[in-house]
Amino acid sequence: MYRFEGYTLDAARCSLRTEDRVIELRPKAFEVLRYLVENAGRVVTKEEFIRAIWSDVVVTDESLTHCVSEARHAIGDNDQAIIKTVPRRGYRFVAPVSRSSADGGSEPQSGSAPPRAGADSDRALPDRPSIAVLPFSNIGGDPEQEYFADGMVEEIITALSRFSSLFVIARNSSFAYKGRSVDVKQVGRELGVRYVLEGSVRKASNRVRITGQLIDASTGAHIWADRFDGALEDVFDLQDQVTASVVGAISPKMEQAEIQRAKRKPTESLDAYDYFLHGMANIHELKKEATSKALQFFYRAIELDPDFASAYGMAAWCYLERKANGWMTDRPQEVTEASRLARKAVDLGRDDAVALSRGGNVLAYVAHDLDAGAVFINRALALNPNLAPAWISIGWLEIYLGEPEIALQHFAHAMRLSPFDLLMPNLQAGIAFAHFFTGDYDKASSLAEQVLREKPNYHLPLRYAAVSHALAGRLGEAQQAMARLRQIDPLLRVSNLKDMTPLRRPEDRARYEEGMRKAGLPE
After folding, report:
1. Based on the number of CB atoms within 10 Å of its own CB, is 213 exposed (0-12), middle (13-18) or buried (19 or more)?
2. Which one of 44, 87, 105, 321 is at 20 to 30 Å from 267 when CA atoms are compared?
3. Helix axes 27-38, 441-454, angle to 10 degrees
4. For 263-287, how does the pLDDT look when each residue is reduced to its tens digit (9 = 90+)?
5. CATH 3.40.50.300 matches 268-385
6. Entry pTM
7. Nearest 5°: phi and psi at 46?
8. Which fold would CATH assign to domain 388-523?
């Protein structure tokens, strides 16, 4: 993690950002900037760049010059005060650089001055109490019970998220620390939270034990710790006890009515809930086979409890994933079933933010009922303003409605709530698509390519890379992305794009179809 002049370059995640925004860079331009920052203070020759970044291809000096120009533009170095050109030799990065050490502190990078005050990019604390719930340890040691421990944490996060007076980091970012030995202070800095909750779950026979400890991340001091024991059928009450204790420790003046409001059971059937947790464990893998398994688990949960709203919502979401990734085999039948599940979810889950947001998203994207989708996703956000997937869903919906600037704001909020989210590729693809409709094809293609480095066969960024490169005049890159896309989805055509992407404005559809034609998609 390198910091300079108010910017943070995260080499591990290939990102460049300031305190309030992420800056998109084309992959090679990012690598050039990274190499310069890592070698700050010394001249890097053109030959060294070629060996380090283009070792397997033949390129001209113009490619390097273009990448350096992009890097300078990204960091506002218009007068070349940070990246100096050394005539007939190469380039030198002259700004002071600090590097994050293993314990989360900073150390000067070779050839640079110590970090300046205010240059640190640790996330600012929100203006209300903030908390991250880390994955609980599975004390029983049985790998088959791992899903149960994860499910307990997810329910506690959901319960805490319902308090509008709390800022709660989303599950997927908290789970980025799963299986790691962490320093709580570092977690607080990286996620931008005041408090961290950690603990353990033991499930043995028909008994459950949950332990928890609440820590002030700024000081490392323990604020509260307790243990909760009960029979398996008491698991929901145990979750409520943990939630109420945490809320009471963080905000003693919070009214008891608010604590009672958090006690919403997802289902009265423990067996159905068990299948639901199995489904959630699979859906987070974002893979075709895992999505199919998740769908089977959610259907089983519905069979055992026909009023389980969240199970309907997540089953519908599985069909959304199938559509978005070109996995559907019987599109009319699957669309019909997804719509049925989504409407059942929003009907049963009037007070269930997960059911409302997932169901609303499916109605918008799969059933093309944008107005209904907006109603239910906004209702979910009113119930749970900390639900990151709902902010991602409303971001996509704003794109479909023709409001890409608003979409970018919603995506930014989702990223703040869950900076390490497993849905980050979907979120980044959404940001790329929004930039496409603002006319910033360079940003759109750069971010799409960034997603493709991690997920080279991901349907969404392949589409957005193809259309953005095409309308920017880079037909070679556009055709390359289209070739990969058609290998994954050979049935995709310009004529069925409207089924794939429910754009309301005719001008948006026309622009999208124009880009796909130029990239080489058949009619």
Report:
1. middle
2. 321
3. 80
4. 445 566 667 878 887 888 787 777 8
5. no
6. 0.60
7. -60, -40
8. 1.25.40
